[in-house]
Design brief:
globular; 4-stranded antiparallel beta sheet; alpha+beta; single chain; Cytochrome-c3 Hydrogenase, chain B; 379 residues
Length: 379
């Protein structure tokens, strides 16, 4: 217990620790919370408990191609999206043209991974607030996506599937059929999730008007992804600054509208992720229909990467927001400097701003609505 004097009056405040191993922090994160009774007056995130050392590893591995597996380990629940951003950056640096079949497979994998990541986000978010059944529902659907990934890459979490100039291997013969079947059966499950959780009165009471993030504050903090779009800002790199072949697809950008509470609250950030899964299904269907049936996915993969002195910055839209890779090259076979702009790290910086004045019990909902992955925070 500490004493703080404010406006000439002495008021008792209490500092408590939440974490670093707390079930509602979604990783090893310690929150130093200052309370006035049950009201949060300040939150200070302490990071560094799960340091991946990605940037230094990237500068010390054997060559550029060996960096890709380390990108998987930053955001380990959306590893395909991490790889996608890195290989795009390297292909721009090397001026490599990627075959059409590779581009379509990459987009399909990235959108499947987006669905899998959002399923985990909304399932654990519901679990944080006491809803156990949705957690089982979303894991059932996520397993179907991981089955597709396993058939294609041989792994279920860290894939090392995309490589500079192409893919490690082509997809299996059942890929198109399995993916079409997943999308067909998954759409009704989104409706079930909506009926089970979205408009549940208890869930609404725990999320509406909680952790409100005004659009101006979100922009000032450089928020991105569902955290930014939950505040009503229609910004998605796939639409606003298209990369790969995203400009060929027709899809919408869901944003928060304050439907059941206040614009930019926890409920809005949640509903954006639910609606984005439907948009990912649209992209996947269009990509499957247009994907070339033939093509060598390794025809443009360099046997050894050698670069000229230069630099590149490339950004992509991951499930958690804008992921950027800044790479400086020299004449060696490995990066001179590599820097990752991780959305989880940036979005976490919002926590003190949107937690002030909330109840301690609401802090659990606020952390869950940001959807952080600590491997990306401690990159």
């Amino acid at each position: 217990m500490i004493e703080i004097v404010q406006k000439g009056k002495s008021r008792p405040e209490m500092v408590i620790n939440m974490g670093p191993q707390h079930p509602s922090t979604h990783g090893v994160l310690r929150l130093e919370v200052t309370l006035d009774g049950e009201l949060v007056t300040h939150v200070r995130p302490h990071i560094g408990y799960l340091h991946r050392c990605f940037e230094k590893y990237g500068e010390s591995v054997g060559d550029y191609g060996m960096v890709t597996p380390f990108t998987d380990r930053m955001d380990y629940v959306s590893a395909m999206n991490q790889e996608h951003g890195y290989v795009i950056a390297m292909e721009r640096l090397l001026d490599i043209e990627v075959p059409e079949r590779v581009e379509y497979i990459r987009v399909i994998m990235a959108e499947l991974q987006r669905i899998a990541s959002h399923l985990l986000a909304v399932g654990t978010f519901g679990l944080d607030l006491g809803a156990f059944t949705p957690f089982l529902y979303v894991f059932t659907e996520r397993e179907k996506i991981l089955d597709i990934f396993e058939k294609s890459s041989g792994a279920r979490l860290l894939y090392n599937y995309m490589c500079i100039g192409g893919l490690m291997r082509d997809v299996d013969d059942d890929f198109k059929k399995d993916t079409e079947e997943f999308v067909r059966t998954f759409r009704p499950k989104i409706t079930e999730l909506q009926n089970l959780l979205t408009y549940n009165s208890i869930f609404i009471k725990r999320t509406a008007h909680i952790g409100v993030l005004p659009p101006k504050v979100a922009l000032n903090y450089a928020a991105s992804g569902p955290v930014l779009r939950g505040s009503g800002v229609k910004w998605d790199l796939r639409k606003n600054n298209p990369y790969s072949i995203y400009d060929r697809f027709d899809f919408d950008i869901p944003v928060g509208e304050g439907e059941v509470g206040t614009l930019g609250d926890c409920w809005d950030r949640y509903i954006v992720r639910v609606l984005e899964m439907e948009e990912s299904c649209k992209i996947i269907e269009q990509a499957l229909e247009a994907m070339p049936d033939e093509g060598d996915v390794q025809q443009n993969v360099p046997k050894r990467v050698r670069t000229k002195p230069g630099e590149i910055y490339a950004r992509t839209e991951t499930p958690r927001g804008e992921l950027g890779y800044y790479i400086i090259s020299d004449t060696s076979a490995k990066p001179y400097r590599i820097k990752a702009r991780a959305p989880s790290f940036v979005n976490l910086s919002l926590l003190p701003a949107i937690s002030r004045g909330s109840l301690m019990s609401d802090l659990v909902a606020i952390v869950g609505s940001i959807d952080i992955v600590l491997g990306e925070v401690d990159r």
